[in-house]
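Lecture 7 notes: from sequence to structure.

We start with a single chain of 74 residues. Read the sequence below before looking at the structure.
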Amino acid sequence: MKTLADLNIGETAVIKSIEATGELKKRLLSFGARKGTQVHVNMLGVKKSTISVCIGKTCIAIRLEEARTISIED
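Now the structure, written as tokens:
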């Protein structure tokens, strides 16, 4: 299963599912991360510990471990 953490800078994908729970899931939903939503990778952190993505017009930075909870369509 491919996740958001597997994408490189400049790549775009569609969210298949979000496996996060609790506060993290609430936070992701508040930013517009939902099944069927398109996400675009803008930047990776220096040590590749964070990833910057745009969901619609909202850009956020999340940890790679959090990005691994977001499955994307191949």
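The chain has one domain: 4-72. Keep this in mind for problem set 3.
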